[in-house]
Design goal:
alpha+beta; binds aspartic acid
């Protein structure tokens, strides 16, 4: 755990999160809020065709269709929006924000989510690339790598006004059942924000994360006075103790508190996460609890 030297702090999951953090910091520098920052950060991973687990170029489901999950949460007013099993939209994180801002709902799924996106002016695109289509064709024959190839971009940010936000976006578990929904669009599982306390975002296997309401629990631990690192470790240790999968439960977390202190950890040592808390973006590695 470290304390950020400046008030504005952005933290994101994985090494590829570094580019997302840079975009989020740029948004803050332009006068954007933490909400704007977590949206622009997630959008970088969504648009990257080389990223096999988020948005365009993400691994498809069994039918060869890319179905994405995304959610956004804004501390003031504890607002949230999310989309699940959404098809054909380049920036699900922006649809999630629109659900939060203009619909009377928090979560839209499947066809209804797609219809809402189109009504809101989002364009329909094919998220399957030539490369992921070829990989899916191989998978159809071999069934190798089922359930593998998943990661989520999760971004948490604190802005100069002291407000917190979180986002997450993913194409979910590779070659999943059509309609499978992971933790990412579920408020409290894939992400959570309490503007008086802190924010958290998760990555790993949704089927593990959502059974523990992982991000709600991390924020609750911070509310009890634990540092972001301690809060992540506490959740992971409790999973390690209680879950039949033990150390094989796939859960990694990033967390940020109201004071700008941050942390991150996975079950195993070495979970990479990107941080900007001052001049430059760095990739750090979690200590793990095993
Ligand atoms: N949590 C995501 C899901 O299960 C994938 C990941 O973060 O690895 O959909």
């Amino acid at each position: 755990m470290e304390t950020g030297s400046s008030k504005e702090v952005v933290v994101a999951t994985w090494e590829f999160g570094a580019a997302c953090v840079d975009a989020a910091v740029h948004t803050l520098k332009q006068g954007g809020t933490a909400l704007d920052a977590v949206e622009s950060g997630a959008a970088v991973a969504e648009a990257d065709p080389a990223n096999r687990s988020v948005g365009f170029g993400g691994t498809p489901n069994r039918d060869g269709v890319v179905q994405v999950d995304a959610a956004i949460m804004w501390g003031p007013g504890r607002q949230a929006g999310s989309v699940a099993a959404l098809e054909g939209i380049l920036h699900p994180i922006s649809v999630a924000r629109r659900v939060m801002e203009v619909s009377p709902h928090v979560m839209l799924a499947g066809e209804g989510a797609a219809r809402f996106a189109l009504e809101q002016g989002f364009e329909e695109v094919d998220l399957l690339t030539e490369e992921t289509r070829k990989q899916w064709e191989v998978w159809r024959e071999t069934r190798a790598g089922e359930g593998e190839n998943h990661d989520t971009i999760g971004v948490v940010a604190l802005d100069s006004a002291g407000n917190l936000a979180a986002s997450c976006s993913t194409s979910g578990a590779g070659y999943k059942f059509p309609g499978r929904v992971g933790d990412s669009p579920i408020i409290g599982s894939g992400l959570y924000v309490d503007n008086d306390v802190g924010a958290a975002a998760a990555t790993g296997l949704g089927e593990d994360i959502m059974r523990y309401c992982a991000c709600y629990e991390v924020v609750a631990q911070m509310a009890r006075g634990h540092s972001p690192d301690e809060a992540c470790s506490s959740l992971l240790r409790s999973v390690l103790e209680k879950d039949p999968k033990g150390a094989d439960a796939s859960i990694s977390l990033v967390a940020l508190n109201k004071e700008g202190a941050y942390g991150g950890s996975g079950m195993q040592k070495g979970f990479p996460y990107a941080v900007a808390a001052g001049a430059e973006t760095r990739v750090l590695r979690g200590a793990g609890v095993v």
